[in-house]
Amino acid sequence: MGKTASGGLLAAGAMALACPQGALAATGACPNPAFQKQAQAAIQLHQREVDSSGAALVAVDGKPVLRRGFGLADRELGVPNTPQMKFRIGSITKQFTAAAILQLQEAGKLQLDDPISKYYPEAPPAWSKVTLRHLLTHTSGIPSYTDLPEFAQASRLPQTTDSLIKLIRDKPLQFEPGKGFYYDNSGYLLLTYVIEKVSGEPYADYLQRRLFQPLGMNDTGYDNTSQILPGRARGYERGLEDRIWHNIRPTDMTWPQGAGGLYSTVDDLLKWDQALSSGRVLKPESQKAMFADYGRGYGFGWYVDQQWGQERIWHGGDIDGFSTQFQRYPKARLTVVVLFNESTPPAKLAVDLAGLCLGAEVYPHEVAETAADLRRYAGYYDSGSASVLKIEPRDGVLATRNFQTGDTHLYPSGGGTFFGKTFDVRVAFEAGADGQVTGMLLTPGGKTPPTLSYKRVDPAEGERLLAVPVAQRLANARAKAAAAAKAPAP
Fold it and tell me: What pLDDT digit, counting tens, does each position of 354-390 carry?
């Protein structure tokens, strides 16, 4: 979406929440001296192009160099976000669950290679080889309870760990334990059960007693929507059909458990980051195990990979109107936290803030296109699946809108190629022998593969395709994919 009526107020108010340039010497500094100006511009771009709202923190050596809120914490009351706002953090919760399991192992109360059946006697025979280690690393083969058709209804009602486990107990494994990888929430649901059984206390109480209170994380806890929580941001989701913001649907926060049930602030997550760095949470061998890559880019509750030429340890979260990113760059002693109280993925902003701090070239070089060239690319493009895009020139760039993100601006990089600044996407237009544009290749994440191929269609066909409800397009695409999967190999 474009600007909201509150945009001017927020632009002025949010700037006041950023760490002042003159304070950098006292609070740490990025290698890039232009970081402050560039970071503020990046956040404002996200606000302008996609109406993002949330809070962001960048720290070097544990000291904030950027700390600010932006957008609205409550769109109906016009309450602006601040760094003190509390956000649901979704799957960032998993690292706290993993830490609790490792603490219990250090106390001699369990072993990572214990079978889950040791703690959950009702485990079916198919789970006989599933260990706690498999659950931590998403290699158990147990299907995710959040993928089940019955989950939508179950998530609106109060649940217990046992009632949720019953949803998956009789489902077949997706693969033999340890022989595959599938990111799922069932593993961390079962780990929640183990924590409660071994510790003898509720999951939320264990985390408060062993993690949050000792570390001074006073603004972190298990979310309970029936309780009054001062400073709680409200969550919003973009409508599937109208692509404007809506309040999240009613949900009961008993369903996420240790897979995604916590709330926190950017400040408390920095405290957590520093506690991990200083060894106040786990013994060295446990911490090494947590951040190890077990062959699939995943440790215990953390992804492990490379970004900006450095090791990156990170995780994101996505839960009912909230989307989050927590990234750590150990060599640079750099920490980035971005918490959105809306459904726009924040990964691009988090990665860009890290790159800007490090002095990396975050965006490709822009090469201006003439108005006539931009008009050449304008039109309707069909992926043959759920995605249909209408592309049009706007202020020297191309603009498109889809059902997931609202507006996306594409910036020219020369030779018929374009890139996104608020979403990590590259586009290359294709032309026939006569020079007429016939389609485009869209590459998410700037990597190949995967690349999506779009065919250019005439305006009448484009409008017909766009008139099909998005929900129906998605259902058609899923049916088409299912039929293709069942078709015999040629």
Answer: 999 999 999 999 999 999 999 999 999 999 888 899 9
Is 72 among the domain residues? Answer: no
Share of the chain above pLDDT 90, in %: 80
Give the domain range for residue 404. Answer: 371-486
Task: Give 95-148 as a DSSP string.
Answer: HHHHHHHHHHHHTTS--TTSBGGGT-TT--GGGTT-BHHHHHTT-S-PPPGGGS
DSSP string, 186-205: HHHHHHHHHHHHHHSS-HHH
Cβ atoms of residues 341 and 87 within 8 Å: yes
Q: Is residue 81 part of a domain?
A: no
Residue 24 lies in a domain: no
CA distance 468 to 361: 40
Residue 446 maps to a domain: yes
Radius of gyration from C-alpha coordinates of the chain: 23
Q: Are residues 242 and 142 in the same domain?
A: yes
Give the start-end residues of each E strand in 162-238: 221-222, 236-238
Q: What's the whole-model pTM score?
A: 0.90
- Cβ pair 205, 258 in contact under 8 A: no
Please count the CA atoms within 13 angstroms of the CA of 157 that sit on its side-chain side: 9
The domain total for the chain is 2
